[in-house]
Every structure is written in structure tokens, then in C-alpha cells.
Amino acid sequence: MRFGMPWPGAEVAREAEQAGVTAFCTGDFVDHESYSTLSEMVAETESALVGPAIAYAFARTPYAHAAAMRTLHRKAPGRLFLGLGSAAAKINRDWFGVPPERPLARMAEVVQVVRAWLHAENGERVQFSGEFYEIDAAVQAPVLGRLDIPVLIAGFNKGMAAAAGRVADGVIGHGLFTDRWWDEVVRPALATGAAESANSARPLEHGWVMTAIDDQAPERAVADVRRMIAFYLTVKTYDPYVEFHGWEGPTEKLRDAFRRGDTDAMGAAVTDEMVEKIAICGTTEGTREMLRSRAASLPRDVAYFATPSFLVGHRRQEAYGRAALGLLDAVPTAR
């Protein structure tokens, strides 16, 4: 298993790689774009695994995802992965202007078309025929050649986790994942999907671990985690997860606070149990023990120490990133 982190910027990344971080990821939001950041990551790292975790799958064509990977592969051969996420229906409809319906079927086709472009050899037509995409491309230039870049899907609920096992190389777990959600929901669904595919390899597991360490003000780190958890749980897509853990009451409170714009009340609605099961936060000593207690249920391949970002400035995120380096030797990195 590797320990990684969301891209903390070149300066912190150099320290992190020297300290033993062996993977970095980036993502999409309104103020940052995956592939632009990934270009910086490729340029500023030497050996680490790098990729989006996640890029919004439907905000671009499969061609665009694959072309970005081909561009970056020339400078980082063997170091790339591609993580794709479906995003919420509201984001697809209202932000991207794309149909939000049937995300499982659409995601499966995106992965297949991306692979068609990545696996294409020179002289071969790139072809795919499905419900959402019809591709028949004759590329009249010697620029192709097969690239075996792992493609992973952000699989939160059972359906998307099964799709990750069935059509992709693995899954990317969310920062909300608990030990039970990994073990009782995601991994069984991933295995079911993998059993339906022709691929005999074990699906890869990447996952975010919500992390905030501040030895001088541990209560602030815990408060930042509470607000981050609350912000995530405003999304109704996660209702099966909420019901599975029996957290309907706190979630109703934090969503009401969100509607009122009361971010303090949002964080206050998150219980101690929720923090304990989801995150590692507080002091360095305390978080090392939290990490050891969850070692058996960390993602099997790459665990990203993900700092809270909701209402957390870049300077404090950078400090959290540096502090997370103190966790690298808390558990064995191979199991």
C-alpha cells in the first residue's frame, strides 16, 4: 500500500516525496481543473504515482480524457492513473448542461471509450458503438500506440462500486468512507462486479482518508473536519450511507443548517461518533493511534491523506498537509 495526498503544491510536494509519499492526486471543481493541475504534478515530482481522483467524467468527452492522458504520459510514463467520477445529478445538469440520467450506464461507456482511445494502435480505427457514444475514428497520423493506464471509478454506493469492478481497473473511495462502508458495502459490490468481467486481476483500491492535524490547536482541526463532513452530507446521493450508519438525525440537522447558511451549526450537528468513524484528526500522537486502529480497512493500494477544504484556507490546508507527513510510519505500507 502507498500513502499519498491531494496535490499540496510543488513546495510541499517535494518535502512529501522525500519523506515517503509515493502518490499524489488532484480533482475538479469550479476553481481548479484536473488536467492543468496534473501537468504541474508531472513536472514537479520524480517517481510518485499521479492522476485525477477524480476528474468529472461527463464534463468532457472520453476523447478529451484520453488525449490528456496521452499528452502527460510522454513526461511521466508508468506513473499515471485516471480516476473518473460521475458527479451529482444537479452538477451535471446545472453546471455542465449534460443529461444526468442513467449515470451507471453512461459511466460504463465512458470508461470503455477512454480505453478504446488509450489502447488504439497506429493504423487501427478507434471504434465503439453504444447507447451514448458512437465512435468511428480513422486517425491518419502515427500518434497512437497502446497505453495501459489504469482507469478507476469513484464508487460510493453499491451500483457504482460494482461498475468499477466490472468495467474499470478499480475504485476510488470517498473521504466519508468508514471501515464498515469499505468492508460491508464497497468491497462486496466491487467483487461482484469484478466476477462479471473477464479480468482476473484484483480491482485496485484508492481512497481518501480525511486528515487534519494541529498540535497547537487540535480543536480547530477537529472543527474543520466536522464542517467538511457536514458539507459532504448535504448531498442526498449519500442517503444510503447515512441510513446504513444510523445517522439520519444528525444529517437532517446539518442539512437544515446548510439551508440557513449556518456553517457553525452544520459542524455542530456532526457527532463525535461520526468524526471517529470517518476521520483522523487532532494531535499527531492521537491521529497516529487513530490510523493504526483503522489499518485493516484502509484502501489496499493507495490511501490519500486528504485535508479538509470547506472554509479552510490554502495556508491551513498546506499546514495540514505537512503535518500529515508525521503519519507515514504509523502503519506498515505493505500488507
Question: What is the strand tally?
Answer: 12
Largest sheet: 10 strands, parallel
Percent range for β-strand residues: 15-25%
Element-level helix/strand string: EHEHEEHEHHEEEHEHEHHHHHEHEH
CATH fold assignment: TIM Barrel
**What is the count of DSSP helices, taking H or I runs of 4+ residues?**
14
CATH architecture heading: Alpha-Beta Barrel
Q: What is the helical fraction, as a range of percent?
A: 40-55%
Q: Distance N terminus to C terminus?
A: 7 Å
Task: Give the low-confidence spans.
Answer: none
Structural commentary:
With 335 residues, the chain is an alpha/beta fold. The protein has one domain (2-327): Luciferase-like domain (TIM Barrel), CATH 3.20.20. 46% of the residues lie in helices and 16% in strands. It has helices spanning 10-19, 34-44, 62-73, 89-96, 103-119, 158-167, 179-195, 218-232, 239-245, 248-260, 263-269, 272-278, 284-293, 314-324; strands at 2-6, 23-26, 49-52, 55-56, 82-85, 126-129, 134-137, 151-154, 170-173, 204-213, 280-282, 302-306. Strands 1, 2, 3, 4, 5, 8, 9, 10, 11 and 12 form a ten-stranded parallel β-sheet that branches.
